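A note from the maintainers: we've had questions about how concatenated examples are separated. There is no special marker in the raw files; a new sequence line simply starts the next protein. For clarity in this README we add a label.
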Amino acid sequence: PEALKPSTARKIRDAMKELGYVPSLRRPGRKTSRRAGLKHYKVILLTLSDIAPSRLLTMPAYSLYLDALIEEFNRWDISLEFCTLGPDGRVPDRISTKHCDGVVLFQKRPDRKFMSYLYERLNGLPVVWSFHAFYDPENRSVMGVYANDAVGALAAGFLHDAGCEKALALTNTFHHAAYAARVRDFLESARRWNMAADTIRDLPDGDDVDNPTISAHIARQLKENPKFRDADGLFFVSDSVMTGAMIEYRALGGDFGRFKLLGCNANLQMLDFFERIPPSIDIKLAGVGRRTADRLLQRINSGNSLPPANLILAPDIVTLTHRY
């Protein structure tokens, strides 16, 4: 049969959207192990880090991603099961074609040896790597990720264009690889813009140090340290860090409104604490969640025959409005 004309296809999509119609992915006939498509209506999210799945939904940035991922799978009546590697780093036995239709591999940048083991263990299951991008020398990976390497440069350009003469990139930890990269890229880009830039490196550290303690330290440095008092622009690697610093700075009697601000993650739950919500970098976490689910469904329904292809969503700067 001939392909639909683009104008006809658009009319069909518009009508489906207006009616809320979602085509069924269930295929007629007896289920067999050779037939492509959904069989179990279950997908497993395998986290490749030491963060427990129960914590992911409570962490602001991750929850944006996971909520969208779960919502998209729910549209197709697909359940999402959370799973972690075993204590010895091995993939659990239930991750197989006998128990699920596909796997979302979440978070960690793997080394080559681990990737070889993982692909052998998954044994042909449709897979999408999600959240972090990485280099795959064998080009076997399908990814749905955000572009963390573009965040720092975007922030530096924004504060430069806003007329800032000295800007700081601020984080609550340098142990978080994504946060550290945002600070590093910001400082490098600021130099190219001939804008003075710095960061607060001597942060409280240790297992017993919580975020309020770090926020209080950042606030004191901004208010009392001569090295940072003349800063007129602040880029925070996450909205939660920015909100904590704002609260502590005001508690010291400071006027946080004197800074040109830019947050990151576009997390309204945090930004709602501001009287006037500052702009924030949307790294498209919800979009990554939706597109990851869509990409995995494509692989499941193609019999895992789609070629490797990476989907990287570029960040942009947004200004949100209060919920109430």
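[label: protein 2]
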Amino acid sequence: DGRLVSDDWRVGGEEPIIAVTHSVNNMALACRTAPVASKVVIVDGASVLTGNLQAFDDVARQQRLLIIADHDQLEDVSVLRERGCQVWLPHPDAILIGLHETHSAGQGWFARFVSSTRNAGSLSISAHVATDPLLEETVTALRRIEAVTDPEAEEARRIMSGVYGVLSRLTEWLGGSGAAARQSLRAELENLQRSLQRSAPSLTREFRQGITAVIAMLGTAAEGDRHVGAGKLSCLLSLLRNECSSTAIVVRSAHSAARLRRVLDSHDIQVDVHHAGSEITQGYDRIILGCWPGRRLAGRVINQYAARAVLLVGYPFEIDWLNAFQRWRRRQLS
């Protein structure tokens, strides 16, 4: 019924001073049942509440609410800000008051916290341009299609999303890919072509023709003899051979990370390679993004502050996505 009752018989079933729960629904029920402003509710993580906005509204309406969020939850924080949350973002310098350089030495959690905070205060995000004329031509064609397509057209949006998904797969091919990856990508393109045919009655002729041409371009880009990603790999190898600081590389998927490790080993280059969904527990001087992993995963990598510099080795359109991300990130952190 929402009442907080201690299960300790020694206190006679009275309400506990502190209650802990993993259930957002139970928390919301207890907050609705209790008198207004009688509780202080502390929630670890913004995503806990963005996954159940009704529970957030119930708690925020009835009780005093404090949410502790990490920087890699900026998208969730943005959602809660729009629902009336006040956001306090302490500056790294304020957090580091009274600390000195020796506090970031060692391997413990506090040393990692101090090191990450220092990195946050001096973070540099930049890009190094790689080229692939066919991929760039493909993106130019996609942008022309987007410019004349109704953003409310659901089927067109779904197909465009699938096309961009294939394009993103190609951006993380560094030095080519295996036969299985090429076969999987060709299957995706065939599925997109079938979706285009099924949805033809609801799509404009211009859209159908444009997407058909783009699918053909992506198919050509994925052919084994073309070595898509060779130019990007060349840029990456050049950067790593001239690198004297500690560096890690991050790509989108675990499969791509494993493949890139083998490629780098064949060039006698030893660096850590992570995938964007992993936690980076070791500190580095620089993290190189081998492709643009998307806004949420990029935020996860960057906002761990495992390095004081992040460099994207990307095609011009990937750098456009990075620039858009940076503008969004600055708004969230302001």
